[in-house]
């Protein structure tokens, strides 16, 4: 396993609670839209065993041509040891990334694509939308629906409806409105539904989609292949 140590080159305050850490691209490091990586802090591999409290599974919120690896995360006032250390890191300090993989690349199957996310889960979808804007081939249209009770919505400059590009974006701040919208979107029985958020959020969305007649094969989750049956009730 190759561990890439790299420096923070910029810290962007997206909202009062959400920051994006822009990292230098190490030589030989590649990724695609929808990728996640293991993001680790200094000292995580200092002992005999990795210190898992200093490692997090994070989505990459940028595309390779943006020349930096973006890690977007919410840091609340009361937070874990990992987030507490992260909050105090500065430009020029080093972090590690390793085991990078994409479970949710943009499928180009001449269908409508629906991106369902909660809060900072939208960071996973930012590269998919940018990839679509650059090349619309074999995607009918994309609709993004995000719920964030803080009302500090993320990436509003990108997640802005653009009818000329067959892209629509919705933000809601409560569950009732969110799930009503999911039901409406599920009227498209041929659509592809991408879901990103907490495990509880995934389960609730899958239940609603199943009730509306959406098949497991139409639901894309940011999970390893071996984890999918647990969520999608497939064998």
Automatic annotation (TrEMBL):
<dbReference type="InterPro" id="IPR017938">
    <property type="entry name" value="Riboflavin_synthase-like_b-brl"/>
</dbReference>
<feature type="domain" description="FAD-binding FR-type">
    <location>
        <begin position="1"/>
        <end position="107"/>
    </location>
</feature>
<dbReference type="GO" id="GO:0016491">
    <property type="term" value="F:oxidoreductase activity"/>
</dbReference>
<dbReference type="InterPro" id="IPR039261">
    <property type="entry name" value="FNR_nucleotide-bd"/>
</dbReference>
<protein>
    <submittedName>
        <fullName>Dihydropteridine reductase</fullName>
    </submittedName>
</protein>
<dbReference type="InterPro" id="IPR017927">
    <property type="entry name" value="FAD-bd_FR_type"/>
</dbReference>
